[in-house]
Amino acid sequence: xxxxxxxxxxxxxxxxxxxxxxxxxxxxxxxxxxxxxxxxxxxxxxxxxxxxxxxxxxxxxxxxxxxxxxxxxxxxxxxxxxxxxxxxxxxxxxxxxxxxxxxxxxxxxxxxxxxxxxxxxxxxxxxxxxxxxxxxxxxxxxxxxxxxxxxxxxxxxxxxxxxxxxxxxxxxxxxxxxxxxxxxxxxxxxxxxxxxxxxxxxxxxxxxxxxxxxxxxxxxxxxxxxxxxxxxxxxxxxxxxxxxxxxxxxxxxxxxxxxxxxxxxxxxxxxxxxxxxxxxxxxxxxxxxxxxxxxxxxxxxxxxxxxxxxxxxxxxxxxxxxxxxxxxxxxxxxxxxxxxxxxxxxxxxxxxxxxxxxxxxxxxxxxxxxxxxxxxxxxxxxx
Length: 383
What we know:
This protein folds into two domains: 5-97 and 197-377, QueA-like (3-Layer(aba) Sandwich); 101-179, Thrombin, subunit H (Beta Barrel), CATH 2.40.10. The chain has seven helices and 18 strands. The protein has helices at residues 172-179, 194-199, 222-230, 269-281, 290-298, 339-348, 350-362; strands at residues 5-8, 63-68, 71-76, 89-93, 95-97, 101-106, 111-121, 124-131, 140-143, 147-155, 161-166, 207-210, 234-240, 263-267, 285-288, 309-313, 328-332, 373-377.
């Protein structure tokens, strides 16, 4: 295994002082400094050829950029065990991506594309509808030439979703599995094929409900998990069903005005206990992906431990947020001006992330869902 090539960058940008947390209890007001941050503070230019259209031939065949403040280490993902120690705890998101994309026609004959956001129960779902004219409440859609749904009212923070009611026999879960298509991200140009149905799922995916993969977990194979277990690195799981809102652009200039989409999550009691045990033994809590981190922080208390249970979260993490639970973050490279780029900037520091992304582009790392990974060390204060 080749030695890691190490690069030290002296950043011209000073450390960003902590601002007000963006988890907003009753009566919370943004600090004046927070209102100064705009989406342009999280922009960068990415050559289109660096957007990974297919995964690496092997899950653990990706590159890994270790970011520790000013220090950047170019690694391979197979080096991850060298960066962990016995007693550390990896927390994975075990959601499973459902086949949420459908093509169909309106009862008027017009073509539609439906992207499920959430299956509410066997007979009801909510989803996005793409059509030349938005369907009216009561309109019937014939999907995949297999079943019909009735369109209800709009939902979502910006009215971007429609309520859908199944008109035929069966249930949404089975019909999606049988007739739906895997919902690859919009920046992947090819239609989903059989290879994507394997590689756009984690090897530990268990709970169906996501319409986008928790992509940091795509790098792990069974052999890597076995190596980590033999080393004494522990594992635990949360469930956060990733919604299509993860791709929704930030349409406001000031990030303090943005409102996040809501996602369902669950923290098992066993995971809360594993985090408490790691804390007690000096182990570090490593979130595998931003979705695991969001679930843990949404449920986190001021004692640094998450509360077990299930709920909904619209937590919006931006620079200045005080992290309660997570010590390190394994993640992919994220889109310009995205809420996920804001999250990793909060975790590792805006200056460090700017430098890391510039380095990754110069070194031809592969970006986004099928791209390479980063291991981020936390900077700044935490609770």
